[in-house]
Write a structure and sequence with these properties.
Helix content is 15%, strand content 41%. With 143 residues, it is mainly β. It has a single domain, classed as Beta Barrel (Lipocalin). The longest helix has 17 residues, at 2-18.
Length: 143
């Protein structure tokens, strides 16, 4: 009888633990529509815009980034040159950016992991260098 009670107690504990959040980790799911738009980094003059503009048939879209502290505005960027990038966003949070360079058409890939994406907040880090983190706030514009 004593062993039956111990067994039932252990079975109850196992069921309780299995229903705990620590065993039911799910990968967060994000929406591309939340990513698209204009973002400002930490109240600085560094901006990133994720557009809906298709770059090619591979599914990449265009984005742009600039820093107004360096007297560069979005209008200063040459189409598909410095400041432009192609991006691919997975709803699991992987964000691949391929930065386009004017000098010889070089394409420099970077992979980021999104940790927060809401309609007003964006945070991600470099996959290769986890200590390099970015935090943005969405900017409401008419552009």
């Amino acid at each position: 009888m004593k062993k039956s009670i111990q067994f039932l107690f252990l079975a109850f504990v196992a069921v309780a633990l299995a229903s705990c959040d620590m065993f039911n980790k799910t990968t967060p799911s994000y929406q591309l529509s939340d990513l698209q738009g204009l973002w400002q980094e930490n109240n600085t003059e560094h901006y990133v815009r994720f557009t809906k503009e298709q770059s090619d048939e591979t599914g990449y879209l265009y984005g742009r980034e600039w820093d107004e502290a360096e007297d560069i505005t979005e209008d200063d960027l040459l189409p598909k040159g410095n400041g432009w990038f192609k991006y691919l966003f997975e709803t699991t949070g992987n964000l691949t950016e391929i930065h386009l360079m004017d000098n010889g058409g070089a394409e420099i890939p970077k992979v980021y992991v999104v940790t927060v994406l809401t309609d007003t907040e964006l945070s991600y880090y470099e996959k290769e260098h986890k200590s390099i983190k970015f935090n943005f706030t969405k900017v409401v514009t008419t552009k």
